[in-house]
Amino acid sequence: MTSPRRATAQAHPNIALIKYWGNRDDYWRLPANDSLSFNLAGLWTRTTVVFDPAAEADRLILHGQEVRGSALQRVQRVLDAVRARAGLAWRAQVTSENNFPMAAGIASSASAFAALAVAAAAAAGLALDEAGLSRLARLGSGSAARSVPGGYVVWRAGAHDADSFAYTFLPAAHWALADCIAVVSTQAKAVGSTHGHALAHTSPLQAARVADTPRRLALAQDALLRRDFEQLAWVVELDTHLMHAVMQTSQPPLLYWQAASLTVMHAVRAWRAQGRAVAYTLDAGPNVHVLCPEDEAQAVARDLAALPGVREVRIATVGGPARRLD
Ligand code: PMV
Question: What CATH code would you report for 5-174?
């Protein structure tokens, strides 16, 4: 009898500067537009995959608890793709944990599916390159495609499964930025992003947002290349406003902002008007990601923590790629 095959991998979540919202193809998670992000160092998901000839079904254990239903099905989408490529029929046990509380509202699907892709491919003996791993992670969660490469990452939408993957645009060392995450709510969001993507096309603003994305992406890439914080702040805030305008005008509308989110957004704008290098962006939730130079992160985090409605602030610097741990 052959013995089980196991591998463990770690990946960071990421924060998008130019957002992914809406798919041109929901089944393959082919996005409506290109996007740009950096990985969040210090925050991670660690996942172990064991393909076992004796196992009767795939199992998912998150923080020691067995999970079934749609979360397991998303994991099986990735496992099935790996099994098909490797010519393997064995069921798997997937064990995963985050070092950040999922209840803190920091998106965990990106790090989760990037770690799963790397661990599952390794356990099955598949030698995939970075693009192949990014494509595999994308099947579980679109933004997970961007958590596979390190540093500042671009995900080209592509037209097919084969050309929709992320790559490093600039290494982390190019510019020491930080993300100070102002946590304003610890509640699970009412509408998850998989459902949200499917609503994007119901907003009359989505087509305009998508059509303008090449311009915003070019401005953001140029700002990063030249380390121009003012230009970066301008385009990042424009991009998040556009995505939230689409969300807020979808049918049904999605309003992720809380009163405390707006408190933080106004404070950041006031600080920038006083000459501080700070900018905000929000994902599909109420927490506010405040970008700043890394050497100012402690001071920014302290000032954010003093704002009404801010429960805690986590600081993340620009992180590296998803990688095997064993
Ligand atoms: O990967 P998903 O399906 O969780 O989508 C994430 C979408 C946003 O976080 C809202 C934006 C982005 O580009 O990360």
Answer: 3.30.230.10
Query: Is 166 close to ligand 1, i.e. is its CB under 6 Å away?
Result: no
pLDDT in tens, 285-323: 999 999 999 999 999 999 999 999 999 999 999 999 999
Model confidence pTM above 0.70: yes
Per-residue pLDDT tens digits for 177-213: 999 999 998 777 777 888 999 999 999 999 999 999 9
The residues, ordered by sequence, that sit 6+ positions from 245 with a Cβ below 8 Å of its Cβ are 203, 205, 209
Residues of each domain in the chain carrying CATH 3.30.70.890: 177-318
Determine the residue of 12, 15, 18, 20 to mutate for testing ligand 1's pocket, defined as the one with the most ligand atoms within 8 A of the Cβ atom. Answer: 20
Testing ligand 1's pocket by substitution, the residue of 15, 19, 181 carrying the most ligand atoms inside 8 A of its CB is: 19
- Classified as helix, coil or strand, 155 is strand
DSSP labels, 198-241: HHGGGSTTHHHHHHHHHHHHHHHHHHHHHT-HHHHHHHHHHHHH
Closest C-alpha to ligand 1, atom 9: 283
Is pLDDT at 103 greater than 70 in this prediction? no
The class of domain 177-318 in CATH terms is alpha beta
Q: Which of 98-102, 152-156, 306-310 has the lowest mean pLDDT?
A: 98-102
